[in-house]
Design brief:
Layout (H helix, E strand, L loop, with lengths): L5 E4 L9 H10 L4 E7 L11 H7 L6 E7 L4 H10 L3 E4 L7 H10 L3 E6 L17 E5 L15 H13 L5 E5 L7 H7 L3 E4 L1 H5 L5 H10 L1
Parallel strand pairs: 1-8, 2-3, 3-4, 4-5, 5-6, 6-7, 7-8
Length: 220
């Protein structure tokens, strides 16, 4: 059976002066999730939005807020993001002293748990936690900035994770983020990813036709 592909547009590429409208447009265009990148200028070399902005955006849509925390130490902020309206909270294993504790903390707020792997982070680092999480976010660029070029060398990592997930019969989404466009989306789906994060391609291709771009990423 073909896997169901979900599209999670990254609002990092949206027009921040009308973010609420942009999110509504994404919902109307068929987005499955809304991907929110949170950067602290410490764990990654950039600063984006915090929990207060998410809280203001939450009433705009019922779509799943797929929140990627690129912040350290992460535990200190989990409560704020959970209470602001995040549905999935994804963190990096390098951003915590105790991965198991962070997973339990996110679950305490009844949120789905994601773990993100940077391009050089090994799968073995998170393998023992797979029974406890809902999503694995594989970065196909170094986290920190929008608009970077896709790194095809991460494809074997997707395949390795897909193989483990299938073998253990786990219900885990495999999400890919970083430089995803119409040219490489098929390769990541073929490798096993079922949640596609894209920013620039969704907002800028085909004169910003969100519906068309989301559908192309889904079906290409």
């Amino acid at each position: 059976m073909d896997q169901i592909i979900k599209i999670s547009p990254s609002i990092l590429s949206a027009n921040f002066s009308k973010l609420g409208d942009e999110i509504l447009s994404l919902e109307n265009a068929g987005a499955d999730y809304i991907h929110i990148d949170v950067m602290d200028g410490h764990f990654v070399p950039n600063i984006t939005i915090g929990p207060e902005v998410i809280k203001r955006l939450r009433p705009v849509t019922k779509k799943i807020f797929d929140v990627h925390l690129m912040i350290s130490p992460v535990d200190k902020y989990v409560k704020d993001f959970a209470e602001s309206g995040a549905d999935i909270i994804t963190f990096h294993p390098e951003a915590t002293d105790n991965v198991d504790k962070t997973i339990k903390l996110i679950k305490k707020f009844n949120k789905k748990v994601g773990i993100s792997l940077k391009p050089k982070t090994q799968v073995s680092l998170i393998e023992k936690y797979l029974n406890e999480i809902d999503l694995i976010l594989i970065m196909s660029v170094e986290p920190g900035f929008a608009g970077q070029k896709f790194m095809p060398e991460i494809l074997p990592k997707i395949k390795a994770i897909k193989s483990i997930v299938d073998k253990k019969k786990l219900n885990i989404d495999i999400e890919i983020d970083g430089g995803i466009n119409f040219q490489n989306s098929k390769s990541v789906k073929d490798a096993g990813a079922n949640v596609i994060v894209s920013g620039s391609t969704i907002f800028k291709e085909n004169n910003g036709n969100l519906k068309k771009n989301i559908e192309l990423l889904r079906t290409n």
